[in-house]
């Protein structure tokens, strides 16, 4: 097992974690540049933001964990009448100073887009969104269920 990291030329950031093998770049440090400079080293897995959808008796509630995003970087829209669209983008930080050397970039960057077809009982005109501590909460109130009107009929006879 110890031969595998040496064989690929990679370094382990944690020798007890078999998945922590860094990517071996044969062009690292050469005048030709790095083969994985913008690709595998940059984490762009932000594409699938995790969102919970819960239905209560009063509303449909969506919660999305969006750590590090400000509300100005997130959009909540309704399209095609009943499709709730939640999107946003996290830019990569550009804090590079002379002499800095990156050892690892694991924080994700990039955009995300999620769409949800809302049911017929959703009140599209009363949707509210709030963001607190990196958690976006979108509340879509439901129309009150019309209880069937029961009318008693006298039985003659």
List strands and helices in order, with pairings:
Blueprint (H helix, E strand, L loop, with lengths): L2 H6 L42 E5 L3 E7 L8 E6 L3 E8 L19 E8 L10 E5 L2 E7 L16
Termini distance? 93 Å
User: What's the story with the biggest beta sheet?
Assistant: 4 strands, antiparallel
Low-pLDDT segments: 1-14, 17-23, 34-45
Return the average pLDDT rounded to an integer: 76
Number of strands: 7
Q: What fraction strand?
A: 25-35%
Q: Tell me, briefly, the overall form.
A: rod-shaped
State Rg: 26 Å
> Share of helix among residues?
under 10%
Continuous helix count: 1
Order of helices and strands: HEEEEEEE
Secondary-structure-derived class: mainly beta
Strand order of the largest sheet: 1-2-7-6
Can you characterise this structure?
With 157 residues, this protein is mostly beta strands. It is 4% helix and 29% strand. The protein has 1 helix and 7 strands, in the order αβββββββ. The chain has one helix spanning 3-8; strands at residues 51-55, 59-65, 74-79, 83-90, 110-117, 128-132, 135-141. The protein has a 4-stranded antiparallel β-sheet, with no helix packed on it. Strands 3-4-5 form a 3-stranded antiparallel β-sheet, with no helix packed on it. A hairpin with a 3-residue loop joins strand 1 (51-55) and strand 2 (59-65). It is rod-shaped. The N and C termini lie far apart (93 Å). 9% of the residues are buried. The model is unreliable at 1-14, 17-23 and 34-45 (pLDDT under 50).
């Amino acid at each position: 097992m110890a031969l595998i990291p040496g064989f690929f030329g990679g370094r382990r950031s944690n020798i007890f974690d078999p998945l922590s093998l860094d990517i071996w770049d044969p062009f690292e440090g050469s005048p030709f540049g790095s083969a994985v400079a913008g690709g595998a080293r940059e984490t762009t897995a932000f594409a699938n933001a995790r969102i919970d959808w819960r239905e209560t008796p009063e509303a449909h509630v969506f919660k999305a964990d969006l750590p590090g995003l400000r509300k100005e970087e997130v959009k909540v829209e309704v399209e095609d009448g009943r499709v709730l669209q939640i999107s946003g983008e996290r830019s990569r930080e550009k804090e590079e100073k002379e002499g800095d050397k990156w050892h690892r970039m694991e924080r994700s960057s990039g955009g995300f887009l999620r769409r949800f077809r809302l049911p017929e009982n959703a009140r599209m005109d009363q949707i509210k969104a709030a963001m607190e501590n990196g958690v976006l909460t979108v509340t879509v109130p439901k129309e009150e269920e019309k209880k069937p009107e029961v009318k008693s009929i006298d039985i003659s006879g």
